[in-house]
Specification:
With 839 residues, this protein is α/β, with parallel strands linked by helices. It has 27 helices and 35 strands. Helix 7 packs antiparallel against helix 8, helix 8 crosses helix 11 and helix 24 crosses helix 26.
């Protein structure tokens, strides 16, 4: 017979009335972020020990302490809500940290009247901090007497009932990790690290030499101004220290989700900014932030001044105001995220939301409130201090992140001041001139009115520039400050591609620019009008043009833009930004939604999970790797974790009746890997009873390309991932700040790999697609067509233009040109030969 679970009775530390923890008017307690237990509305002012044990923590404000019992249970007692703001006023401790105490012993005396007047609430929480050690909570109810009545009974988990703990936690430090991030831990990798750190109870510090930062604070992490190659480590103190060190160290080694190329929010792949040189006094120069041409009228935009009073009401009232403003700001940013169709760019605003919960930033504001400042004044002081600190760093990327802190800060400040943030409401045909714009400003632009913008601050790697490129708004950053003196309403020509603003264009120059803009618009309209037509060359060769998508919405947009199918559904987007793997039902619903958006007659290629190495998942315990690009990636991860793989295959197969289903395995390097994956698929097909699907592999590594003729009999198709194929062929990390420009997919060696793949596939009657970046590159399309590629899977916006280009090509001429190009020696020579096709 199984022994009954050990029980521990926790006495009421104060006399009063018990209430459920969920009723406490503080989300930190009500949502059990600190621990689980009970709350008590007190009628006495002497806090008695609810259990026997050791005082392992006594807060310096004397309003809270933790007792660790002989069983290792950590009992936290917190007198009142926001009583930390009293800084010890009204509290008198009768014990000190490290004291061994017995149940019923006096711990803290406090002035009930004083605390009731100055604190937000007297509700006192009795919490179990290490809830993982408790199997069951049985709270009491009604009236209780201090030191006598049982307020909470807990049943202990088996492993903790027989284990005696000292009740103290020694600090542990993990092994040093060399940061792989080309720009160090800037905003988004810092946000990823902080979000993961917040999952642990332990105090976590990011340590570099003698410097350290709160690992749960984005601004603190950025404040370290880390660089690529810096040796950093995690130091942890608390109940889950070892687990936290393992998880965060692996995350740091992987780049904190910052992968090259397609990684969400990638900032280091942008071309190095080059400041334009004005050709005449009539031009103002800056840095090209977003390409494009615009002719419009100047609108001088200035940020509004938000006034707040220095002194506030009581600290508890001001704290309530701050909490409400932070909550509303998060809701506003969530709405703003919905306006961005590109999930990668929406990650910029996710980082903004993370700042709203930054413990160092919020604590600094609370400290100001405790000093008698209003919430608005304290908050402004807090975010201004951190922004100023970043602006002083010797790191251009981190200096630009100061703008993000000011953006978030101003949003909350406006809410605290009770003013509505001024919206950029301008006349149609406007070109904005500003000292600085924020990501929120840029994301909220009315694209039908704002034709372009120039800022005297910022650069090509700022979040404002990244969003401008995403939205297709021509922009210049770092422009000559003389732009701020341009007359409101004057007509100008903005050339975002060149980083030049023509301030007093002649009628001829205006006409030429408008003609160029009109030609581009007409061309785009014509391409869109003909997008539903098949992409057939002038000599009758059909090239299937399909879409790269993430979800059903992308798929529907792709069909509208003329996609003949889906050539790449990136299934990893279902697995990202979550704590557990998606269930079979959740995955199946997503895959079937894509299939339904596509229709029965169009092909659907679903790539199985492509993560690992440089693309970590928090719930997948992949080991740290010195060479993540050469480690567990793609199909290797699926074979290493077959249950996740099998679940995904079963979910994918449910979409088979709804579309022409194709399953594609990523990063296949050997025939053994392919056969192992196919064997598992065959077992799942047989077990599930679902129809099977066509099977293919992504050609991303040279071994697969040179062995294409051997692979071909075992698959139905190949799809070439030119981004990875380029970096593996040239042995150049495509995210490397110095090598990225040389990692050119039009290098003859890469084109030879594509040629080998096509030749091997066609010998066995199998088709070949290209789903990497080259497929969307107008300059590359003619050579791909000439090499014999059958399908081009491109980004949704590029579909009409790529189809129109194919229809202008002669397949025979492309074939002849491709044969010539294969004998060239450099990427520059190839690009020179293809220059006529550049869009």
């Amino acid at each position: 017979m199984q022994a009954p679970a050990a029980r521990l009775e926790i006495l009421a530390p104060l006399s009063g009335v018990l209430i459920p923890l969920e009723s406490v008017p503080d989300p930190v307690f009500a949502q059990k972020m600190v621990g689980d237990g009970i709350s008590l509305d007190p009628t006495s002012g002497e806090l008695l020990a609810p259990v026997s044990g050791v005082v392992t923590q006594l807060h310096q404000a004397h309003h809270a302490l933790t007792i660790t019992t002989a069983e290792g249970i950590e009992v936290l007692v917190h007198i009142g809500i926001d009583t930390v703001l009293l800084k010890g006023e009204g509290f008198k401790p009768a014990v000190k940290q490290g004291d061994r105490i017995t149940a019923g012993q006096l711990l803290i005396s406090f002035d009930v009247d004083l605390v009731a007047r100055k604190a937000r609430s007297l509700l006192t929480q009795v919490l179990i901090a290490n809830v993982e050690k408790v199997m069951r909570f049985v709270p009491a109810n009604g009236l209780v007497e201090a030191g006598k009545s049982v307020a909470l009974t807990i049943e202990l988990a088996a492993e903790t009932s027989t284990t005696t703990q000292t009740g103290t936690h020694a600090a542990l430090t993990g092994e040093a990790v060399s940061l792989p991030n080309p720009s160090g831990l800037h905003a988004r990798p810092a946000a990823v690290l902080a979000a993961e750190a917040k999952k642990y109870k332990s105090d976590l510090r990011l340590v570099r030499g003698s410097d350290e930062a709160n690992a749960k604070s984005v601004v603190a992490i950025m404040g370290l101004a880390t660089r690529e190659g810096d040796a950093v480590a995690i130091r942890a103190t608390g109940p889950d220290a070892a687990e936290a060190i393992r998880s965060l160290s692996a995350l740091l080694a992987s780049g904190c989700g910052e992968a090259a190329g397609e990684a969400p929010g990638e900032e280091t792949t942008e071309p190095a900014p080059v400041r334009a040189k004005p050709a005449s006094a009539n031009e103002l120069a800056g840095v090209s932030a977003s390409p494009g041409l615009a002719v419009g009228k100047i609108v001088q935009y200035r940020q509004q001044i938000i006034a707040v009073s220095e002194r506030g009401e009581s600290a508890s009232v001001e704290r309530l105001k701050l909490d409400a403003a932070l909550h509303e700001a998060r809701n506003q940013i969530e709405t703003l995220k919905g306006r961005l169709s590109d999930p990668a760019k929406a990650q910029i605003l996710v980082a903004h939301q993370e700042l709203l919960e930054d413990p160092d930033l919020v604590d600094l504001a609370i400290e100001g409130i405790g000093d008698g400042k209003s919430a608005g004044f304290a908050w402004r002081e807090a975010f201004t201090r951190y922004a100023t600190r970043l602006e002083g760093l010797d790191n251009a990327l981190l200096r630009e992140r100061a703008n993000d802190i000011r953006d978030v800060g101003r949003r909350v400040l406006a809410l605290l001041a009770g003013v509505e943030q001024a919206q950029i409401d301008v006349p149609a045909g406007s070109i904005l001139i500003a000292e600085e714009l924020t990501p929120s400003d840029t994301a909220s632009f009315d694209r039908s009115k704002v034709l372009g913008f120039c800022t005297t601050g910022g650069g090509a790697t700022s979040h404002v520039a990244i969003l401008a490129r995403s939205l297709g708004i021509p922009a210049i950053c770092g422009i000559d400050e003389a732009a701020l003196t341009l007359t409101e309403g004057s007509l100008v020509v903005l050339d975002g591609s060149k980083g030049l603003l023509l301030k007093k264009p002649s009628e001829t120059e205006i006409a030429e620019a408008q003609a160029r803009v009109a030609r581009q618009a007409t061309k785009r309209a014509e391409e869109m009008a003909a997008a539903s037509e098949a992409a057939i060359t002038t000599d009758g060769h059909h090239i299937e043009v399909v879409a790269n998508v993430r979800n059903a919405a992308d798929t529907q947009e792709g069909v509208t833009h003329g996609a003949e199918g889906v050539g790449l559904l990136r299934s990893e987007f279902l697995f990202d930004d979550r704590d557990t793997a998606p269930s079979e039902e959740e995955q199946a619903a997503a895959y079937k939604a894509v299939a339904q958006a596509l229709g029965h007659d169009r092909p659907l290629v679903i790539r199985t999970l492509d993560v690992g190495g440089d693309k970590p998942l928090p719930y997948l315990p992949l080991p740290r790797e010195d060479n993540p690009f050469l480690g567990l990636r793609g199909i290797r991860v699926s074979l290493e974790y077959p249950e996740i793989f099998r679940t995904q295959l079963r979910a994918i197969l449910q979409a088979a009746p709804l579309a022409r289903l194709h399953i594609m395995f990523p990063m296949v390097a050997t025939l053994d890997e392919l056969r192992a994956a196919k064997a598992i698929l065959a077992e799942e097909v047989q077990a599930s009873g679902h129809p099977s699907a066509k099977v293919g592999v992504m050609i991303e590594v040279p071994s697969a390309a040179v062995m294409a003729e051997v692979f071909a009999p075992e698959v139905d198709f190949f799809s070439i991932g030119t981004n990875d194929l380029t970096q593996y062929t040239l042995a150049m990390d495509r995210g490397h700040p110095k090598l990225a420009k040389q990692a050119d997919g039009l290098h003859p060696s890469v084109l030879r790999m594509i040629s080998l793949t096509v030749e091997g596939a066609h010998k066995h009657g199998k088709w070949v697609g290209v789903c990497g970046g080259l497929a969307s590159d107008a300059m590359a399309v003619p050579v791909l067509v000439g090499l014999g590629v059958d399908e081009l899977s491109v980004s949704v916006p590029a579909i009409p233009a790529i189809k129109a280009l194919v229809k202008r090509l002669s397949h025979a001429e492309c074939t002849q040109m491709a044969n010539e190009i294969l004998h060239l020696g450099t990427a520059a020579e190839v690009r020179s030969r293809l220059a006529a096709y550049a869009d």
